[in-house]
Every structure is written in structure tokens, then in C-alpha cells.
Amino acid sequence: MSVLGIIPARYGSTRFPGKPLAMIGDKTMIHRTYDQVLKSSLDAVVVATDDRRIYDEVVGFGGRAVMTRADHRSGTDRCREALEALGGGYDGVVNVQGDEPFIDPRQIDQVAELLRCDGITLATLARRIQDPSALDNPNVVKVVFDRQGDALYFSRHPLPYLRGVERSRWLEQTAYYRHIGLYAYSADTLRRLADLSPGRLETAESLEQLRWLENGLRIRVAVTDLDQSLSIDTPDDLLSIPKEALL
Percentage helix, strand, coil, to 5, in the chain? Predict the structure, then answer.
């Protein structure tokens, strides 16, 4: 199976305009993200962007990029256009967000490997939550899944709710999982996802993956023991990057 890594990267951002071009040490964010994806076992890597400045940056450091429309609703839609622009030729796609300059390549390989399992056409990762503050943080998306590992629901709210148990003891009583926004799709599934319209649950939680569940798709969730990488959401996040991460 041939798997393509696509890094969606747009210039416009409410909280951090021009984020892919922000400097992290001696490299831009998109450069560092690209380098991390190259360390994985994916067959090829490409940046999908709507901005000529990002395109020129990627080509300038020797990377591969394609221009896409600016009106996409999500990174998944941008991935679909990029796949088609390249003429297909790949059996699967891994979507790596462009603001993950420190993502562990082993996580990329773990989610890509799921596509090689019979019947799995859509997959993502999760990690067990250890920090109590993450439970009530709406920016930390939680996921619950069945015994086969297929997602039941994603939410910004703690799941499950523990009736009759003090909130301070929830992590002691059951396992909670944080969703890691790394997706793998078969090429056919990616094309199908881009044709789906937002539904009630996605609108309520502002989580794209709920659209897929509402339409009956199965999302296999693999649990990783690797630490969540440091993602960059705001300019202030740049100040919290440890010096050793820049080596």
C-alpha cells in the first residue's frame, strides 16, 4: 500500500495569522513539520496550501507543495484537492496538521499502519489523559471507543460522566483518552468525506470527525503511549518551546 503524507497549511488564522511561516529557531514552522513527516515511513510528503508565500517557502527549502483553493471548510477537504491535483496514485493519505513541528514520526507510522488492516479505511490516534486539568479543558478533545477500537464519540466535554463520583477522583476510577488530531484515510474514503455536509453534532461541538460518525463511517482509534507533541496555536506558544526541542 502506497501512503501519501499531506500537510494542510493555510495562511489565514484568527488567533495566529501566518502561523506556518513563524520562525522556530532557525526554521519556519512548516519547514520543521515537513522534516518530521519525512522521518516517517510514508512514501511521499506534500504541503497543501492556499498561499503563495507558504508554497514558495516549501519549494525554497526543497520540499514539495501544491496550491489549493482558499475556501475549504477543513484540512480534510484540502487534502482531497491535493490528492486529486497529484493525479491520485496513492492508496491512502495521512493528514498531518501544519502546526505540529515536533510531531513524533512513530505516531505517523502507527496511524498509517492501521490502513493496512482489513476493513479499516479511516483511523486516528488517542492517548490516555493523566493531567486532571485536561478533563475540563474544551481545547482537549476527548474520545470514547468500543472494544474493537472504533470511535463512539468525540467531545470537548469529559467522557464518560461518572455518576456519584467526586470530580477529583474521575481519573482514578476510569480511563479517559485525549484525541490526537492525526488522521489516516484510504483514498476512496477521503474522497467520500469531502462530499459530506456538516451535521448537527459537528455544528454543536465544532469537531469535523463527528460529521463522519453521523454519516455511519467507522473510525478506528489506536492508543499511543508517546507523549503529545507541542502544537502551536497562538504566538505565545512560541515562548514556551523548550530550548532542547530546537536542537
Answer: 30, 20, 45
227 band by pLDDT with thresholds 50, 70 and 90? confident
φ/ψ of residue 79, rounded to 5: -65, -40
Question: How far is the C-alpha of 230 from the C-alpha of 88, rounded, in Å?
Answer: 32
- Of 13-17, 189-193, 226-230, give the range with the top mean pLDDT: 189-193
Residues 16-38: pLDDT tens digits?
678 899 898 889 999 999 999 99
User: DSSP strand E in 106-228: where?
Assistant: 122-128, 142-145, 151-155, 177-186, 220-223
Whether the Cβ atoms of residue 122 and residue 184 lie closer than 8 Å to each other: yes
- DSSP symbol at 2: -
Contact 93, 187 (CB under 8 A): yes
CATH of 3-235, one of 3.30.70.930, 2.30.29.30, 3.90.170.10, 3.90.550.10: 3.90.550.10
Q: What is the C-alpha separation between 4 and 161, in angstroms, rounded? A: 38
12 grid coordinates: 489565514
Alpha-carbon distance values, 147 to 117, 151, 180, 220 (Å): 16, 10, 19, 11
Angle at the Cα of 172 (from 137 to 202), degrees rounded to 5? 35
- The CA distance from 192 to 125, in Å, is 21
